[in-house]
């Protein structure tokens, strides 16, 4: 092992070195956890020799016809086997995703929320994003924290002001991660909540994961009238429309609304996400059921896109 720091690059440089597109590298990172970038204090992802090695191994495996998921799993498993052979594991250390103390992070966020301490909450989130991937931060900390806050409010443990303060801050951080279109060239997805759904944080997290996989997004947010969604579809012409709801009640539509939904499903791919959606409901609407938490649901949509969407010029 050399004594100097390992060289690191932005994703565009890594793509050039490996000879694949940035979109494909992002897909390998999001879908399979193949890449493990470090973050600068400014929030930029930097990739190192280990990422280059894995990407090259992935490329060679794909050239041999190995399915992408299988190839990534074998590459990561081989690295774990090699690491275990080099040193004894230390009890309590973190996995390759980073040293993430979920309980500690949640406790710190709760304490900062109850003190209405904006700086402290941002400090916890900054440290979190320097430690693990955006996807891990969302799945393992941000969304569980917001669920805990919601449950605490319902139980009377937190005031509505606590919930509003935390929601606004987390929503703002997710919005900052969900940046403009940039150089993304993937499918276009329109994201909205049904008319009775007021919570959009999970859908914003879903958007972040899709963007990191190279997708282009248009976000309408909560309380979106279905007629307005249909009008937006006519203008945007998205490849996919995703409706997300936290409870089954928000998907209880009248006949007029159902007619709009079914026309949407005929016009483009339609996905239903969130705890309120079900496979049975999706089937009855001619839609896809995007099951699981927002990170799982978004990565699942990315994986299905090749068979779901008709290639365009």
From TrEMBL:
InterPro entries named among the record's database cross-references: Cbl-bd_cap, Cobalamin-bd, Cobalamin-bd_sf, DNA-bd_dom_put_sf, MerR-type_HTH_dom, MerR_fam, Meth_synthase_dom
Molecular function per GO: cobalamin binding; DNA binding; DNA-binding transcription factor activity; metal ion binding
Keywords from the named record: DNA-binding, Repressor, Transcription, Transcription regulation
HTH merR-type domain boundaries: 8-78
Organism: Nocardioides marinus
Domain B12-binding residues, every copy: 186-312
PROSITE patterns in the record: B12_BINDING (PS51332), HTH_MERR_1 (PS00552), HTH_MERR_2 (PS50937)
Name of the protein: DNA-binding transcriptional MerR regulator
């Amino acid at each position: 092992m050399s004594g100097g720091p390992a060289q690191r690059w932005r994703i565009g440089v890594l793509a050039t070195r490996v000879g694949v597109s940035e979109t494909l590298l992002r897909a390998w990172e999001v879908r399979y956890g193949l890449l493990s970038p470090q973050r600068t204090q400014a929030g930029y992802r930097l990739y190192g020799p280990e990422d280059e090695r894995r990407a090259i191994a992935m490329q060679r495996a794909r050239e041999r016809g190995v399915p992408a998921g299988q190839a990534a799993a074998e590459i990561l498993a081989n690295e774990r086997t090699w690491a275990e052979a080099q040193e004894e594991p230390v009890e309590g250390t973190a996995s390759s995703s980073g040293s993430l103390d979920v309980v500690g992070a949640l406790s710190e966020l709760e304490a900062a929320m109850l003190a209405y301490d904006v700086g402290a909450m941002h400090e916890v989130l900054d440290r979190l994003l320097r430690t693990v991937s955006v996807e891990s931060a969302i799945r393992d900390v941000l969304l569980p924290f917001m669920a805990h806050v919601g449950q605490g409010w319902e139980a009377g443990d937190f005031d509505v002001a606590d919930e509003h303060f935390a929601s606004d801050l987390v929503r703002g951080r997710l919005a900052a991660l969900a940046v403009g279109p940039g150089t993304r060239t993937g499918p276009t997805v329109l994201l909205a909540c049904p008319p009775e759904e007021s919570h959009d944080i999970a859908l914003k997290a879903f958007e972040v994961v899709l963007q990191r996989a190279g997708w282009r997004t248009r976000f309408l947010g909560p309380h979106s009238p279905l007629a307005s969604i249909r009008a937006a579809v006519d203008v945007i012409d998205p490849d996919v429309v995703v409706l997300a709801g936290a409870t089954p009640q928000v998907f209880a539509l009248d006949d007029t609304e159902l007619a709009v939904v079914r026309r949407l499903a005929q016009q483009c791919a339609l996905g239903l996400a969130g705890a309120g959606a079900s496979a049975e409901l999706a089937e009855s609407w001619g839609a896809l059921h995007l099951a699981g938490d927002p990170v799982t649901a978004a990565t699942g949509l990315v994986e299905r896109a090749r068979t779901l969407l008709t290639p365009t010029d």
